[in-house]
Amino acid sequence: MPVFAYKALATNGSVTTGEIDAADRPEALRTLDKRGLQPVSLRESASSAAATVARKGKSKPQSNGKNSETAASSKPKPNAKAKVEEDESIPDGPVKLKRSEVVLFTEELSDMLSAGLQLEPALKSMESRQELGNLKVVSFKIRQIVRDGINFSTALKKVSPSFGPLYCSLAAAGEASGALDTILKRQAHYLKTLAELQARLILALIYPAFLVLAGIGVSIVFVTTLIPQLTSLIQSTPGGKIPLAAAILIGISGFLAKWWIVMILVIVAATIFFKAWKDNEANKPTWDRMKLRLPLIGAVITSRFYVQFLETMANLVGNGLPLLRALELSRDATQNRSLRAELNRVIDQVGDGRALSKAMIRSGAFPPLLIDMISVGEQTGKIDQSLRRSAERFDKELDKDLQRIMALIMPSVLILMAGLIGTMAYLMITAIFNTISKLG
User: Residues annotated as region Disordered (predicted)?
Assistant: First the structure.
């Protein structure tokens, strides 16, 4: 019987190696699964493979060409046909998923892992479900890659771009700490919160969008109809003189009527140039710093970083990962390059033996409240609990910031539209009254 050498992860996160006897690779994988081991690599040993080849050579029957041809043609191949049909139903290349499908995949997988299922059987179970749609294809592809000994996070990157760098980095952190189910559950909560926020934002923007469209329509009527009529009226009046404010408005309307195509082209060109600039690798650090300084939006980005950093650190440290390694994985899960640079400074100082709270103080990028809570955790020896409490507090602050932004959208749009339309109406009415007074 062939002998397979394996390297696998145990349920407690430790790495174990050894050899098992099995008829073939699938049986070896089933044996490891029964032992509660998640295979990282599984190969038939060289001596066993050579012995298998020698046995096959000795047992090969001697026959003439006609008999062998007849036997080959009469041998049924149902499994090969089924496998071909199955492979043909699987599309090639990366599979794109909707956000709702990513959330469903994450929730399903985290629930199965929390229930004690190993990664490969959990993916197999999702692959067998009838109502999951594209997730069946994604589960199949990920399971095939994982069975070859590739990390789950690497498989995610290869199979679908919809998971994103943040998702894959957090999955890698979960694999390293043995808390993949917890990390996935928190990621599902984050994705659901993000989807709910976008839905609320769309609902909050519906009425302002109607106001903006109405304001644009009224402005077009002013520019194309009312202002030319007012100009003709004033010019036809004996001694009529256009007021300065009205003259400015008329000049602006004439400029827009003449050059609107050029202005649209300039705006489109500027948008394309800006997108190319911010997507350039050399300019991404500068753009990330600029995002942190934007009014309101910068505070939301910073608060979200604190919540993600603290939650990831709490999970990693709570599952026994060393503090320095937990910091490195949390840095890899941070997308903003400016904040990642701050974490690099903290990692360098912690690597030199400095306490985490002291390193954060020297960095200057973390708020005093966060540092104080981490310092208490260091003194009590329960830093994971302090990190989790800090994450909960900053999550509440993030929710307040988002509610504040959504509450400011409506008044801001109303003030802008009222100022624009009111100014034009005031200038026109003033010009009309001046003309009437001169006629009197």
Answer: 32-93
What share of residues in the chain are helix, strand, coil (percent, to 5)?
Answer: 75, 5, 20
pTM of the full predicted structure?
Answer: 0.60
Residue 242 φ/ψ, nearest 5 degrees: -75, 125
pLDDT tens digit string along 160-171? 888 877 788 778
What is the four-CA torsion angle of 149, 153, 157, 163, rounded to 10 degrees?
A: 150
Count, residues in the chain: 440
Amino acid at the residue 111? D
Q: How far is residue 180's CA from residue 114's CA, in Å, rounded to a whole number?
A: 9
**182-222 confidence digits (pLDDT tens):** 888 877 877 787 777 777 777 777 877 887 888 778 777 77
CA atoms within 13 A on the CB side of 295: 3
Please write down the long-range contacts of 239-246, taking CB distance under 8 Å and 24 or more positions apart.
239/438, 240/435, 240/438, 241/434, 241/438, 242/431, 243/427, 243/430, 243/431, 243/434, 245/427, 245/430, 245/431, 246/427, 246/428, 246/430, 246/431
Residue 189 class from Cβ within 10 Å (0-12 exposed, 13-18 middle, 19+ buried)? middle
Q: Tokens at residue 195, please? A: 């989807």
